[in-house]
Amino acid sequence: MIGNSAKGTVGTQQATGNSALLGIGIGGVIAGTLDLLQACILFGWDIPLSIAGGLLGRQAVHGGPGTYALGVVLHFFIACSAAAVYYAASRSLTFLIEYPLVCGLFFGAAVEEVMRLVVLPLSALHAKGPYQWNDLVLGLIVHMTVVGLPISYSVRRFGGPPTA
Questions:
Q1: CB–CB of 112/140 below 8 Å?
Q2: What is the pTM of this model?
Q3: CA 21, CA 104: separation in Å to the nearest integer?
Q4: How far apart, in whole angstroms, are the C-alpha atoms of residue 33 and residue 31?
Q5: CA distance to 11, 38, 61, 83, 164, per residue, from 44 (Å)
Q6: For residue 136, how many C-alpha atoms fall within 13 Å in the half-sphere facing its CB?
Q7: pLDDT tens string for the chain (164 positions)?
Q8: Radius of gyration (Cα) for the chain, nearest Å?
Q9: How many Cβ atoms from other residues are within 10 Å of residue 87's Cβ?
Q10: Three-state secondary structure along the chain?
Q11: Residue/partner pairs of 121-128 with CB below 8 Å, 24 or more apart
Q12: Is residue 75 within 8 Å of 145, Cβ to Cβ?
């Protein structure tokens, strides 16, 4: 009997770990794909070179296929990291799972602001304002919808219930 209960606990922990990876992975991949696709459509297909520039510096915009691939990998790393943050927060803040529409929109806006005000200024590009009003609004709307919502709904659907 003790063996069965211990086995059930391990199985539950493995299922929880698998659901965590599933929620984070699906949310990160969907958000990363939608965000990269919209950025390439709006700003050109060289966007991954600019993303790599955040790590390598301005010379990355003249990079080749390796630099392009690095930019894509970095982009998906950031998207999956955002999904991991949302998942981790949802374990104790259960309203993140209960209200994915509102929370996803706010989370997408928060991701945009962290990227714009923290990550980009600290990157090798040292990108900082002044910003145009329409760029700020477009960035918020895009990240609210193509980053925040896929992550919040994926964590809700695939992330499993929060543990007590």
A1: yes
A2: 0.88
A3: 19
A4: 6
A5: 47, 9, 12, 25, 46
A6: 8
A7: 444 444 444 444 455 668 999 999 999 999 999 999 999 999 999 999 999 999 999 999 999 999 999 999 999 999 999 999 999 999 999 999 999 999 999 999 999 999 999 999 999 999 888 889 999 999 999 999 999 999 999 999 999 988 76
A8: 18
A9: 25
A10: CHHHHHHHHHHHHHHHHHHHHHHHHHHHHHHHHHHHHHHHHHHCCCHHHHHHHHHHCHHHHHCCHHHHHHHHHHHHHHHHHHHHHHHHHHHHCCHHHHCHHHHHHHHHHHHHHHHHHHHHHHCCCCCCCCCCHHHHHHHHHHHHHHHHHHHHHHHHHHCCCCCC
A11: 123/53, 123/54, 123/55, 124/53, 124/54, 124/55, 124/56, 124/57, 124/58, 125/50, 125/53, 125/54, 125/57, 125/58
A12: no
Residue owning tokens 């602001």: 113
